[in-house]
Amino acid sequence: MPTDPASFSDQIRILFASALQLPADQRDAFLDRECDDPALREQVADLLQHYDERLSLFSTDAVPAGLAAGPRPQHIGGYAIQEVLGAGGMGVVYRARQVQPQRDVALKVLQAQAMHADARARFAREAEVLARLTHPGIAQIYDVGTFDAGYGEQPFFAMELVDGDPLTDYARRRRLGTGDRCKLIAAICDAVQHAHERGVIHRDFAMTSPWHRGTARG
Q1: What is the set of active-site residues?
Q2: Angle in degrees, CA 112, 113, 116, rounded to 5
Q3: 3-state class of 145 per DSSP?
Q4: Which pLDDT tens digit goes with each residue over 138-195?
């Protein structure tokens, strides 16, 4: 039976995020243990290699291995870290619990390896732009700050945590017809247009159903 594409992508994403929390010399053993499918293992290994190659472009002698390759922090500012939601060459996003007020948030952190001046400026710009966007289909930004885990002051910002199904899964599981699918796309386009009108150009974005409080996140 062929592998469901959405399920396969979810497995890749979960394994990739989990592998990033391990030291580099433990990742192969982790993939051997967790991947029964050779194709799945190859996809995750390729992502990890690409990730490491990108990080090497930003590494300096003054910056040791950063958060993505080391132990997951327990706390960042007033936030208790729960799990990794995603990671890239520049940042990592955690599910976190804000202490006051108590709520779950998505906490985006600039990684230690990427703390050069240009990356810090882009990260600050991202937070400023997001703070100007007010739309029911765009996650709201709550807080901006820095913390020191031994690599210097690392910036972070906290956003509304959007829990929802990927758009294709949502439509498939509910057997939505063409009309309802078009309504979902129209809602997403409305959120993206709101950002475009304020000078934000989306190079990529994740989509969830608007009935799950979010349609687009840059």
Answers
A1: 204
A2: 90
A3: strand
A4: 889 999 998 887 767 889 999 999 887 888 888 999 999 999 999 999 998 998 888 8
Q: Which helix (H) or strand (E) holds 6?
A: helix 5-20
Q: How many CA atoms lie within 13 A of 37 on its CB side?
A: 12
Q: Which residue in this structure is represented by tokens 């809602």?
A: 187
Rg from Cα positions in the chain? 18
Phi, psi at residue 92, to the nearest 5°?
A: -130, 140
Q: Is the full-model pTM beyond 0.85? A: no
Q: 7-29: per-residue pLDDT in tens?
A: 777 788 888 888 887 888 888 99
Sheet of 141-148, strand order: 75-76, 79-87, 91-98, 103-110, 153-160, 141-148
State the SS3 of the chain. CCCCHHHHHHHHHHHHHHHHCCCHHHHHHHHHHHCCCHHHHHHHHHHHHHHHHHHHHHCCCCCCCCHHHCCCCCEECCEEEEEEEEECCCEEEEEEEECCCCEEEEEEEECHHHCCHHHHHHHHHHHHHHHCCCCCCECCEEEEEEEECCCCEEEEEEEECCCCCEHHHHHHHCCCCHHHHHHHHHHHHHHHHHHHCCCCCCCCCECECHHHCCCEEC
